[in-house]
Amino acid sequence: MPFMVILSAVGFSVSFFTSKVVDATTSAAISTFTIAIIGNLYSRITHNLGYVAVLGATIMLVPGSLGVKGILAAMSDDSQQGTWLPFQMIVIAMSLAVGLFIGSLLVYPMGKKRTSMMMF
């Protein structure tokens, strides 16, 4: 539990500071990259699964306001903004997946030898 809170705080702070400099998709990728690096290093050092902590920290990065804005735009007269909702959700999901994949690839470049790698 303490590692989950620490990893979520690290992911949120990286997301907060990078979103001021770059756009939302790049910020999400950088944040999940940081989360994956720290979670996989924790898993490698302690031989415990880092999956739960990484999952909790990744859920903190998913923008809930994106869905609310998209639904409000779809219900209002601004129908063009409502049509961009699925595209924005797919792009952010892909940037989260890319950040997690690259972070996992850097810590385990050849995969794990004896156990299955329980990570995204």
UniProtKB/TrEMBL annotation:
<feature type="domain" description="Threonine/Serine exporter ThrE">
    <location>
        <begin position="3"/>
        <end position="105"/>
    </location>
</feature>
<dbReference type="InterPro" id="IPR051361">
    <property type="entry name" value="ThrE/Ser_Exporter"/>
</dbReference>
<keyword id="KW-1133">Transmembrane helix</keyword>
<comment type="similarity">
    <text>Belongs to the ThrE exporter (TC 2.A.79) family.</text>
</comment>
<feature type="transmembrane region" description="Helical">
    <location>
        <begin position="26"/>
        <end position="42"/>
    </location>
</feature>
<keyword id="KW-0812">Transmembrane</keyword>
<feature type="transmembrane region" description="Helical">
    <location>
        <begin position="84"/>
        <end position="108"/>
    </location>
</feature>
<feature type="transmembrane region" description="Helical">
    <location>
        <begin position="49"/>
        <end position="72"/>
    </location>
</feature>
<protein>
    <submittedName>
        <fullName>Pheromone-regulated protein prm10</fullName>
    </submittedName>
</protein>
<dbReference type="InterPro" id="IPR024528">
    <property type="entry name" value="ThrE_2"/>
</dbReference>
<keyword id="KW-0472">Membrane</keyword>
<dbReference type="Pfam" id="PF12821">
    <property type="entry name" value="ThrE_2"/>
</dbReference>
